[in-house]
């Protein structure tokens, strides 16, 4: 049997107003929610969250975007949930995202793509710890 994983999703500030319909889409697609919280990132914590992009030319713009308003951060758990949710979120660029994916539905542009999903299990655990989501531990 595949191991139960956790992944972190985030409704970014430009989409905070759409949080309810986004979470309905996610639940209707069969994902299991194990925790959620709303807050506003500090510049310092946002810079840490996206630390793997620190050498990219868009890093400053990305931090400004993430800190411009409130976010909804949530944890999903289930078998193979990291890649299943990433597929449901869609391509980084909403113009290239498959029809029906969250970024196709709610993303504005590649920079302001509206939704985040963890890239792998290691990133998910790091991002969950950094966000302080009180989530059920899928391993317990
Ligand atoms: P996300 O998948 O949450 O993680 C990295 C973010 O950087 C990505 O979503 C986009 O918001 C942003 N991003 C990725 N590529 C670019 C780019 N080429 N230009 C500007 N922003 C980008």
Automatic annotation (TrEMBL):
Gene Ontology molecular function: any one: nucleoside diphosphate kinase activity
Biological processes per GO annotation: CTP biosynthetic process; GTP biosynthetic process; UTP biosynthetic process
Keyword match Transcription: no
Residues of the Nucleoside diphosphate kinase-like domain: 4-137
Catalytic-site annotation from UniProt: 116 (pros-phosphohistidine intermediate)
SUPFAM superfamilies recorded: Nucleoside diphosphate kinase, NDK
Binding site for ATP: 12, 58, 86, 92, 103, 113
Claim: Magnesium is one of the keywords in the record: no
InterPro entries in the cross-refs: NDK-like_dom, NDK-like_dom_sf, Nucleoside_diP_kinase
Keywords: ATP-binding, Kinase, Nucleotide metabolism, Nucleotide-binding, Phosphoprotein, Plasmid, Transferase
Family: Belongs to the NDK family.
Protein name (Swiss-Prot/TrEMBL): Nucleoside diphosphate kinase-like domain-containing protein
């Amino acid at each position: 049997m595949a191991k139960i994983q956790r992944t972190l999703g985030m409704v970014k500030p430009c989409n905070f107003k759409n949080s309810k319909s986004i979470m309905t889409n996610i639940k209707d697609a069969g994902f299991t929610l194990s925790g959620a919280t709303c807050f506003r990132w500090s510049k310092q914590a946002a810079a840490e969250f996206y630390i793997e992009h620190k050498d990219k030319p868009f890093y400053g713009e990305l931090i400004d975007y993430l800190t411009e308003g409130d976010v909804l951060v949530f944890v999903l758990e289930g078998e193979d949930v990291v890649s299943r949710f990433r597929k449901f979120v869609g391509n980084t660029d909403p113009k290239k995202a498959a029809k029906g994916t969250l970024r196709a539905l709610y993303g504005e542009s590649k920079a302001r793509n509206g939704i985040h999903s963890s890239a792998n299990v290691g990133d998910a655990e790091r991002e969950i710890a950094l966000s302080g989501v009180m989530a059920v531990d899928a391993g317990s």
